[in-house]
Amino acid sequence: MTPAPIAVALDAPDLETAARWAGLVTPHVSTVKVGLELYLRYGPDVIASVRGASGVQVFLDLKLHDIPNTVSGAAKAVARLRPAILTVHAAGGPAMIRAAVEAAPHTQIAAVTVLTSLAEEDLGRIGLAGPAGEAVRRLAAMSVEAGATALVCSPHEVSAVRAEVGTGITLITPGVRPIGADSQDQARVATPEQALADGADLLVIGRPITGSPDPGAAAAAIAASLRRNQP
Ligand SMILES: O=C(O)c1cc(=O)[nH]c(=O)n1[C@@H]1O[C@H](COP(=O)(O)O)[C@@H](O)[C@H]1O
Q: Which residues form the active site (predicted)?
């Protein structure tokens, strides 16, 4: 069976747990995601540990955000690990995004538009002209123009972003919660089925899977539900 288009966020406090989660979910999902918590604690070794023998795609979510020269150096430093995807903040601007794209030619650069943890009322406070849908659309268009081939947005904006950027761009949505699951610190959320129906290519799901007593079974259940809902 083809693995589901899900990136499991391995936000674990230690490497053993992350590698165990990766092993359990890998038969069911296409991708595992390494974020700041693991990377800052263990560094580059974490990539080989979670990739394991399966060779699953690794998404390195470092959300780089700095001046172009610094982001170029950082992207070069991790490009040798061959992550399939690397995140940068779209708010870093077009020159920064382009610097990342040029520094990591074998990795897909994903620009994070507006964090899924931000609610409409937060945008004004950080000085971002809203509403969220409009800010995401603006950042998405700018990022693609700067060379990003993937975008991160919430499921709420995915259909508008798809209409804006067309079919060639990979749309990645965190803020995904199966029916009945707690949204926790996520503000703009939808179900996996809805996110996919609205045009997402890859769903980022962490705690609804990794917080389960059986992460393998939780991943398998979401994957099966997505298959059932396919048109
Ligand atoms: O870039 C990301 O992956 C990301 C962007 C965003 O806007 N919101 C967001 O939640 N994420 C990441 O997606 C994951 C979501 O995890 P859960 O909320 O546990 O499903 C975390 O690892 C976040 O760092």
A: 61 (for ompdecase activity), 63 (proton donor), 63 (for ompdecase activity), 66 (for ompdecase activity)
